[in-house]
Amino acid sequence: MSALPLVAIIGRANVGKSTLFNRLIQKRTAIVNDTPGVTRDRIYGQSDWLGHFFIVVDTGGVDVDGTNEIEHQVVEQALLAQEEADIVIFVADKNVGLTPQDREVVDRIRKSGKPFFFAVNKVDHARHEQELSDFAGVGVDTVYPISAEHGHGIADMLDVLVIALPEMKEKPLPENTIRVAMVGRPNVGKSSLINRLLDSTRCIVSDIPGTTRDAVDTFLEIDKENFLLVDTAGIKRKGKTAKILDKFSVIM
Ligand SMILES: Nc1nc2c(ncn2[C@@H]2O[C@H](COP(=O)(O)OP(=O)(O)OP(=O)(O)O)[C@@H](O)[C@H]2O)c(=O)[nH]1
Ligand SMILES: [Mg+2]
Q1: Does ligand 1 lie within 6 Å of residue 151's CB atom?
Q2: Which of 13, 126, 161, 231 is the least crowded, having the fewest Cβ atoms under 10 Å away?
């Protein structure tokens, strides 16, 4: 899954980063609260828009006062997220307006050369879009007015964002896929067991291009449960076992 492009949400505290994150991943994973400095760590989730898959990372406020170690870490984590990201969504707050810190962070992102999207959040109604002239001063071509809470403007921004995503190296597995490895000495019947599984009428077998590292992983859907038979032939190869053992979560 690590092959998916990474989109980092960066901005000052309380601008609505976690609200945007939750909207993008369509879950309420990140805590949203009207207190600045709620998010402290990096939080990851998977999102897709029109079949384009990407990982989103929520971060803490880049303006959190770094007077103690934890606050220092919040800013540090946000910086790391920015560095590892392929694309950055910088979020400002319409109700606060453009701040010197916004400008500072945008300059830093611009210097990184990464594609970035300048979103102004809390634009809950189309009529609020007129209040955005303040943000023209940041010098970006496009300001994306959004409402992370109500959804306004999100689709327009994502339509452009997915075009900027780097080419995906692997197609993601469905969520909750269980990786299963057949482990055992040669000739004990691993292949027969696999074939029996594949032949069973309740089992839908499909090729997922790219999920197959060594051309021997097999994706199965059995009664709506997803399984990946990991590296089943590779097991027989000498010296590969240790590497293979890293790859599965369930051992049969
Ligand atoms: N009106 C309005 N309020 C919003 C919107 N998005 C977020 N909020 C509110 O803004 C406050 C902060 O939201 P969060 O998502 O926690 O902000 P954050 O940027 O993650 O904050 P930190 O984690 O503290 O940096 C909450 O009270 C949200 O309900 C929006 O689109 N419109
Ligand atoms: Mg947050």
Answers
A1: no
A2: 126
Q: Is the pLDDT of residue 246 over 50?
A: no
Tell the residue nearest (CA) to atom 12 of ligand 1. 14
Ligand 1 atom 25: residue of nearest CA: 13
* Rounded distance between C-alpha atoms, residue 103 and residue 101, angstroms: 5
What are the residue boundaries of the structural domains of the chain, listed by start?
Answer: 6-164, 178-251
What mean pLDDT is predicted for residues 59-83? 83
pLDDT digits (tens, 9 = 90+) for 22-55: 999 988 878 888 887 777 778 888 898 988 989 9
Pick the CATH number of 6-164 from 3.40.50.720, 3.90.470.10, 3.40.50.300, 3.90.230.10: 3.40.50.300
The b-or-e profile of 33-53 (16+ CB within 10 A means b, else e) is eeeebbbbebbebbbebeeeb
User: Any idea which fold 178-251 has?
Assistant: Rossmann fold (3.40.50)
Burial letters for 239-251: b for 16+ Cβ neighbours within 10 Å, e otherwise?
A: eeeeebeeebeee
Half-sphere exposure of 46 (CA within 13 A, CB side): 13
Q: Do domains 6-164 and 178-251 have the same CATH topology?
A: yes
Centre of ligand 1 from the C-alpha of residue 38, in Å: 10
Condensed to tens digits (0 to 9), the pLDDT of residues 201-238 reads 555 555 444 333 333 567 778 788 888 776 554 333 33
